[in-house]
Amino acid sequence: MPSPTDTMDGEDEIDDEEDRPRFCSLDPPHEVTCKARGINTFVEFSEACRRGQLKEIKAMVESGEMDLTGVDGQGKTPVHVAAGHRHCHEVLVYLLGKGASFNRRDDLGAVPLHDAASHRNIVGIRQLLQCGAEVDVRDRRGYTPLFAACKATAFR
């Protein structure tokens, strides 16, 4: 089991491709970029993710206006944002289907599964696990997604 001090910059690969749903991507992490209108594009994209506005998200991605590897000020990708909101399961499926990484770490070392677990997003947790998201991954504090879920439940 990794310690909280282990490096957190790599993504582990999953070998079981036939068990993975068709909307999952195992592409290596990409450079963090926002195309077209820069950071404003990512802010608009993140807000559309938060609101579950799939139509707007599709338009931004398919026009090339938004690169799915962009991050916000905390290093969170659109997958982190969608995973952290219970009403965004269709957005999450779409993002994963377009090849967005489900194991990318934010600035605190958390992966989207941490966000889904800490917001008690059961559907999001299932989608990420079906893609092969690591269950035992630890953020920089040493928290696993299970710990994040327990902590979220204990204080609500």
From TrEMBL:
Sequence ranges of the ANK repeats: 74-107, 108-140
Entry GO CC: nucleus
SUPFAM superfamilies: Ankyrin repeat
Superkingdom of origin organism: Eukaryota
PROSITE patterns hit by this protein: ANK_REP_REGION, ANK_REPEAT
Segments forming a coiled coil: none
Keyword Plastid: no
Keywords: ANK repeat, Repeat
Pfam families referenced in this protein's UniProt entry, alphabetically: Ank_2
Biased composition (Acidic residues): 8-18
The protein's name: Tankyrase 1
Organism expressing this protein natively: Ectocarpus siliculosus
